[in-house]
Amino acid sequence: MKSDVGSKKWGIGRIGMYLFLTVISLFSLFPFYWMFVMSTSHSSAYNSIPPAMVPGDQLKENFQKVLDMIPFFQSMFNTLIVCLTVTIVVLFISSLAGFAFSKLKFPGKNILFFAILFTIIIPPQLGLIPQYLLVAKAGLLDHLFAAMVLFFLNPLGIFLMRQYVSESVPEELIEAARLDGCSIFRIYRSIVLPIILPAFATLGIIVFTSVWGEFLWQFTVLRDPESYTIQVALASLNNTFKVDFGMLLSGVFWATVPLLIVFLLFNKLFISSIAEGSVK
Amino acid sequence: MVSLDEKHQKRRRKGFSSQEMKEMLSGYLYISPFFIIFAIIGLYPAIFSLILAFQKWNGMGEMEFVGLSNFQVILSDPLFWKSVYNTIILGLMGTAPQLVIGLILAFLLNLSYLRFKAFFRVTIFMPYITSMVAVALVFSVFFSNNETALVNYIIGLFGFDPVSWKTSEWGAKIAISTMVFWRWLGYNTIIYLAGMQSIPNELYEASRIDGASIFQQLRYITIPLLKPFIILTVFFSTVGAMQLFTEPTVFLGNTAFARDEAMTVVMYLYRDAFRLSSFGTASAAAIVLLLFIVVASAFNMMLTKRLGKDGGKHV
Question: What distance in Å separates the CA atoms of residue B149 and residue B164, rounded to the nearest whole number?
Fold first, then answer.
């Protein structure tokens, strides 16, 4: 048996531990910092030895080059519309279904619920080609609706909402409302909805961030630059033969900043939401 | 208890009252959106893919039934096997270190006497909120082919020659698995941390009194009790790794579909469908991919379960 290493204050073990955590933290932070450095530097800074490590004075110039290449603000706006719409639709579908699965009685309830869970294992690429053909046939290529529609399906959301409704909405409350003659939709709207609002934040964050970063599907159905979401637009910046790194990382930087700020402001809620969404 | 009595009363009666009928209809109505959308954009495409895998079709003219020949074509295509090999290697290189280091990080973040906990947690998790495209672009600059690329400069300090990261077999793989590692490390750490918080602190205290080192605690207490969470992350990572597409595609830019060092299975099927208009072989590749995902997750789950048992035996 070893001696009491774990609890010794400021022994080698503890210093090593803080060192390890600090190195990993720097490793995590560095790309963010460096993204900023490059987005403010002349592209020649990239060729300097040693590499540039302090911000330059090309902040505006680089971003102007981004604007010349892609409709940046239009793409950000498109992404925002896509993310918000998907989030709202998923919250609505999931909470309604979660309420039904948890509080209403109807035959086949459990089988249907397991059917929904089962759809989680179908990989999205399996249907990619027919999904594309379907969208093309409906004349929806380059439409934002096409970029959204795939993500309305969110089995995890239904699972989380059912869980949350079961845990936090007391049966007695619903019984009482029934006796008062409330319609079932009224029960959902006036009793269930206010109670499950915290779960909306959790699921909303999960859905919003995942749709924000979505690429493959958008890349497949959006071909007109005016309809690009920000991810597709950013990827197109790297598609030329000679890439201006300052311009490229300026685009990435400005596309990352908004979500980064929101994350830093609400980091506790973010982290607990993502963990909860995966662990439940 | 009122509701229970009512339930019994209702069950004794035959048929449904109008109120029960209403409730049933509402139930079906409220869960129907998922099923309607799933039928259109989930089920129908999956079945269509299955049919398409046995047809020859360029997306425009008539379909022609060709039996298993699409499978023959892809299974005898060296590029397909190269993409399978790449996917597996990238999966191993990108996810295995991530899970091991994530476990250690979570263990440290869970120590009661650790200071600056919130700071470390936020910084380690931060990469997760960047999009895969953003990560791939930043790393495409870190790992550019230039001799002055940041990573080439750093390895130069240790006396190594510059590497052509985008056009060499292992260069591309190292670059891509590094970005996968960077983005997902914090995510897995947070899941492990959530799991560890459910392990009672007394266990650690008791073991500390017995003189267990940090590594012994990790091995004999944390890992066995964390098994369900480890299985979860291994499952997510396996499925994610088999579907790798965005990172290599964006990292390589305009050469993504022209070179084979980092072509993954999903890139292969994307290229077949949307660059070569060969929808039949692309669908066959999608179905082979599905089988691979099932086999790979089953294999990894088995492995993970054994890991837990080994730890348990020693205790």
Answer: 10
How would residue A113 be classed by pLDDT, with cut points 50, 70 and 90? Answer: very high
Q: Are A238 and B250 in contact (CB under 8 A)?
A: yes
- In this structure, chain B runs to a length of 315
Rg (CA), chain A: 24
A44 at B interface, C-beta within 8 A: no
| pLDDT at residue B308, as a whole number | 54
The DSSP code sequence of B195-213 is: HHTTS-HHHHHHHHHTT--
Say if the Cβ atoms of B27 and A20 lie within 8 Å.
no
Helical packing angle, A59-69 and A230-237, nearest 10°: 100
A42 and A224 in contact (C-beta within 8 Å)? no
Residue A117 has a pLDDT of: 87
Q: What is the pLDDT of residues A34-67, one digit of tens each?
A: 999 999 988 777 777 777 788 888 899 999 999 9
Place of tokens 């895998």: B53
> Which residue out of A125, A234, A248, A262 would a mutagenesis test of the B interface target, given it has the greatest number of B Cβ atoms within 10 Å?
A125
Helix (H, G, I), strand (E, B) or coil at A141: coil
Burial class (CB in 10 A: 0-12, 13-18, 19+), B209: exposed
Instruction: Sort out which chain A residues have CB atoms less than 8 A from B277's CB and list them.
Output: none
Q: What domain range includes position B276?
A: 71-314
Report the CATH number at residue B131. 1.10.3720.10
Residue from the list A131, A239, A263 with its beta carbon closest to the beta carbon of B129: A263
- My answer on whether B104 and B235 are in the same domain is yes
> H helices then E strands: how many in chain A?
15, 0
C-alpha dihedral sign at A133, A138, A139, A143: negative
Task: Tokens for A173, please give them.
Answer: 């409350």
| Domain end point (choices B68, B98, B128) | B68
Same domain for B210 and B164: yes
- DSSP 8-class letter at A46: G
Give kind and range of the element (H or E) at residue A251.
helix A245-265
Phi, psi of A259 (to 5 degrees): -70, -35
ipTM, two decimals, is 0.90
Does residue B5 fall inside a structural domain? no
Under a CB-based contact definition with an 8 Å cutoff, are residues A230 and B261 in contact?
no
Mean pLDDT of the residues in chain B: 88
A45 contacts A246 by C-beta, under 8 angstroms: yes
Domains observed in chain A: 5-58 (no CATH), 70-237 (1.10.3720.10)
Residue in chain A closest to B125 (alpha carbons) equals A271
Contacts of B246 in chain A (CB under 8 A): 215-216
Q: Which amino acid would we find at residue A110? A: N
| Residues A151-175: b if buried by 16+ CB within 10 A, e if exposed | bbbbbbbbbbbbbbbeeebeeeebe
